[in-house]
What does this fold into?
Amino acid sequence: MRALDGLDLTVGEGTVLGLLGPNGAGKTTAIRILTTLLRPDAGRATIGGCDVVRDAHQIRSMIGLSGQYAAVDENLTGRENLVLFGRLYQLSGADAKRRASELLERFDLADAAERIVKTFSGGMRRRLDLASALIGQPRVLFLDEPTTGLDPRSRLGMWEIIRGLVRGGATILLTTQYLEEADELANSIAVVDHGRIIARGTADELKTQVGGERIEVVVRDRAALSRAAELLSRSDGDESTIEEHTAGSRSPLTEVPSASSRWCATSTRRRSR
Ligand SMILES: Nc1ncnc2c1ncn2[C@@H]1O[C@H](COP(=O)(O)OP(=O)(O)OP(=O)(O)O)[C@@H](O)[C@H]1O
Ligand SMILES: [Mg+2]
It folds into this structure.
């Protein structure tokens, strides 16, 4: 089983890279390798000049991870979870408590702070999980599908939180299954499938790559159709397909003189990659 197959990524400091891909594409595997949870069989990755295998200890002190499944302890309260993470990040007891209070406030969890997490909704867990990833004030953040399973309102709330982190100077790699989310949050997007990058660029660049042009010519006389088709296919070197249909079967784009004699030649052209 090859989960990743030559995946090659760069994330500029202070920017957000969106890793966009369907189930099983390799997103979580990539994040697990970059966050030192999984050792790669081959290849190399560095964060801020440190190698994820050789310098794993240093890497762990500079990154924060909010995994696909919330890593918080269900049997502790929201506050206890954050204090525990603070202690794991080697903060003093007092600093861990102070940081926990700050984060509970910032993530709108102050009122629920003394409840055990078992009673939290999915959106609250997700926010607590992200808060726990921020305990050590990491410069680099990995967010694995931060909004999957959230309702539309909670998703917008999470987007605002992520935008706030970006304004604060964080470098973020986030994965998502939604182009819309990558479009909203990421400076650049890498589309991954079967462990490989199959397209990359800004949201606008990607949309241009998959977009196409459609030229529809309506003729009065069926006899003129083959001539119209020939002219369309000649327009330039890109791949063209010609469809023939009576215009009455769809809403005509052009006003035509007689409803009984409408014929269309359509050239649909995808931009070549
Ligand atoms: N521990 C493992 N053992 C064997 N195969 C695995 C393991 N973890 C992942 N895989 C396989 O590797 C491929 C990539 O999985 P991965 O979890 O990275 O995908 P993903 O893009 O995160 O998907 P999803 O959107 O469902 O979270 C899948 O085919 C998966 O079955
Ligand atoms: Mg995953």
Observations:
- The CA atoms of residues 36 and 198 lie 25 Å apart.
